Amino acid sequence: MPADWLTAAERADVTEKSLGRGLRILGIHYFLYFATLAGAVAPLPLAVNIVFAVANGALIGLLFLIGHDSGHSAFVPGRTMNRWITRLVFIPCLHSRSLWDVVHNRIHHRYTNLKGFDYVWAPMSKGEFDAAPLLRRGLERVYRGVFGPLIYYWIAFWIPKLVLPTSPESRNEWRRHLPDTLFVVFVGGGMVAAIGVLGSWLSPDRALWLTMLLGWLLPFAVWNYLMALSIFLQHNHPAVPWFDDPKEWTFYGGNIRGTAHVDLPFDFLPLFKWVMLHHAHHALPSIPGYKLTDAQAKLIEAYGDDVVRYRLSLGEYLKIVRACKLFDYDRKQWIDFDGRPTAPPIDLDAHGRDMPKDLRVARPLQPAAGPRQVPRRSGRVARPSEDAGGQRRAGGEPPAE
Questions:
Q1: Closest CA to 102 of 85, 115, 88, 119
Q2: What is the crossing angle of helices 79-89 and 19-41, to 10°?
Q3: What is the CA radius of gyration of the chain?
Q4: Which helix (H) or strand (E) element contains residue 311?
């Protein structure tokens, strides 16, 4: 529960939204998006166009992160303004605001790392993998390989869950989702067409297919890769557990034990650094990204070694990819496709705060922009309770809707 790691005054501070700061962040990133878009289709050497196209894809991702916060009503004050900011910044990534709310707020945040409910990079069990058709097994091998993020988000999420209300969790409410779907189709589609017009005006001698490749397809592929990679890193790690039994799952197990704090190897792109401080966001989604550094530091102070934390590098990424193929839900252990253990079983008992200080794991990382290392305090973990109907009540702020 937020009260377990934040005082009332701290919670009021970290959840306070700033209209001026939010609009400034929005304006800067949309300006950079249009600037890199122009560079991608301008009459420049092809290599320079490609650099701008990759940067434009990164800007699509950064705009999405603004929409992520505003989708939680956690970017600026006021739910209506947050909703319209979400629609605005979701135009380049072609996402429906209301469908994203279902996938992210209602499902992922409410049942984090509970397989059968949360399907964001949910690992298959050995039995499930062996029973899957040959094509599905091959796809899973690709998904959980080094190049998996190149295709995962395109296939598993984009159109079937975030553009058209056709998925099982949204089709019964398709009328409610229809306005945002039409907004994506017509406004987002209009922006894609405008890229072709802009490129033809700036570089009339360039073939239209090449203009669209540089101005839309390549940036969109970069954005998809960054999105899939980010959510993989946030919820897949040899020390991060998944659950398939609702009776075993807890809010603490899913949202504190079931996510990772990733220290990035570079000290720029603040929006991306903030979203990788993932525990505080899951524990209290109403915290704006620009307040997550302080909130995450206080959470680490409260929960100690229960917080999975590492610095991202190529070697660390390859280690995670090699380990996180399938998951043994009974033993709480990552295994490979042949069923061999790739990591030790995960001890689900909370141990980070009550362990004597001389037995705690030293955590020397001190990233320039990441959470500070602070002394840990003792206290007991507040577990989710159940109401009369058996419905779990998750700790922390409820989703935006």
A1: 119
A2: 10
A3: 21
A4: strand 308-311
CA of residue 99 relative to chain centroid, distance = 15
**Which one, of 31, 45, 228, 187, lies nearest residue 220 by Cα?**
228
Conformation bin of residue 393: beta by default, left when phi > 0, alpha when psi is -120 to 50: beta
CA dihedral 394, 396, 400, 401 (to 10 degrees): 30
Give pTM, 2 decimals: 0.84
Contact status, residue 384 vs residue 392, Cβ threshold 8 Å: yes
Classify residue 346 by burial, with Cβ atoms within 10 Å: 0-12, 13-18, 19+: buried
Structure token pair of residue 30: 């949309």
Q: Which tokens in the block code for residue 63? A: 């705009």
Instruction: Report, in this order, helix, strand and coil percent for the chain, each rounded to 5.
Output: 55, 5, 40
- 64 class by beta-carbon count within 10 Å (0-12 exposed, 13-18 middle, 19+ buried): buried
Alpha carbon 157 to chain centroid, angstroms: 13
- Residue 186 scores a pLDDT above 70: yes
Q: Which amino acid is at 281?
A: H
The answer to whether the beta carbons of residues 397 and 284 sit under 8 Å apart is yes
pLDDT in tens, 230-289: 999 999 999 999 999 999 998 888 989 999 999 999 887 889 989 899 999 999 999 999
Alpha helices by DSSP H, listed for 203-327, are: 208-212, 218-235, 251-255, 270-275, 278-283, 292-303, 314-323
Give CB contacts under 8 A, 24+ apart, made by 295-298.
Answer: 295/6, 295/14, 296/261, 296/370, 296/371, 297/371, 297/372, 297/374, 298/5, 298/6, 298/10, 298/14, 298/374
Each residue of 27-39: pLDDT tens digit? 999 999 999 999 9
Calpha distance 190→69 (Å, rounded): 25
